[in-house]
Structures
1.
Amino acid sequence: MKKPSYVGFEPSTYEWRNNINYRDNPQLYRIGKGQQGVLTCEPYKSEICQHWRFKTPDIATESSTKILEMFYQYLDTDDFVGADMAKKFLHMGYTRSRRYANHPSGRKWQKVTNKWEILPLADDRMESDKARSADIFYTAWKEARENQQYLKLKKLHRSKYEK
């Protein structure tokens, strides 16, 4: 079985830096895959992270609604980096909720005699509060990632800065 992605992670090769203000320097922002950069890119991390919660479906609803509202505010000012970061936080709400639905301890991997194994899935992984929280974040994430203005700004950012 393969090892977890964080094993052997090399920070010096990571595209994102926490000492860069990406609002002032959008040319340094790389879109990346999935949630890359989500806990690094300032000032967006600090603006969005304070609203990111998924413990219960009610909390997830409040959180995803606020982050989606921020996503649209970033779009209103043509701030692609902010919109992309908000979308990534919605994605992370989905994946982290799903992780805790599948593995209530939050740990997916366990090292057993020099190899990594995935821990067993929870019996209630499709009906738990965390599963419902995941569904809530998934809906908001899907809305953000399919937004036409967002997709237009993403294409523009790539053509302008990621050659």
2.
Amino acid sequence: MSLNIKEDDGIVVLTPHGMLLGGKETDELQNKIKELDGAGNEKLVIDLGKTTHVSSLGLAVLFRVHASYATRGARVKICSVDRKIQQVFILVKLTLVYGDNLHETLEEALQSFRAAVGSGSAS
């Protein structure tokens, strides 16, 4: 797996490629998230558009990043979730954890951060 990292107007976008099964690929994502969290990143988007499968260990990373960022008042958004992965999110209640921070497309996720800045809200 590879992990694409880009920054768009202060928003960091992580795009994992392949499968998040709990091995090296999941460790790569988790380590980058820890690095960003430790550096005080406030706006993170995890784009799952190139992710084909997520195991329970991958789901755990997504739960932990939300909890860690929320504790600091920062936000994580997830976008471009494949229908099969979306069904797993529903089963494990990840959709309830992320709520309005789940977006169909990367552009929607980025726009939601930009709109929050314009309105003074931290959505």
3.
Amino acid sequence: MSDEVLFKSAADALRFAFNFSHQQYDRPLMNRLADKRLGGGKGLVGPDGAGQAGMIQRRLEDLPNLHRAILFARFLPRTSPCACGSLCCSSQRKNLVWEEAASAIGAYATEAIPDGAGRYRLRTALVRRFYGAKDTQAKIADDVGVSLRTVQKESALVANWLRGTKASKSGPGVPGVDAVAMAAAAALMDEMGFLT
């Protein structure tokens, strides 16, 4: 590997690794040379790009399951194109890996946050919402069969667990599990020599 830094941040590296398209192709030599002269991209396409994406994803296996699930939920696309032609999917289908990651985080939230007994479906729906699902709190309340007030209360608990809390007069701030997972990923990317 060259001394050239491939990514500006761990988020850039993870976004690349989780969104690398297997259908990318290597660009002609003249275009790549022009990019280098103009200060363009790093040339991570074709087999080189696939290799880098695979290396990053392989190293994530060294992280705890919760951290991996958080990174999947944060960086994987929630949907993928569907060419079935049916009206039911609007040319998009659920990314089952993303769904599984959100479910795993929901299970951890049910265990980690007090009074979680019987709250798995609700907390999983709130995790999905935290990571970009478009469900409203009212829809979640309807789907799970609880009051909107319960959803609002649980939403604050799940968000604090994921995002963390800021320091206040009552005590120091606590980093959320999302920030801890990102810090662990950044340490791995730095160890691999991918970051500045």
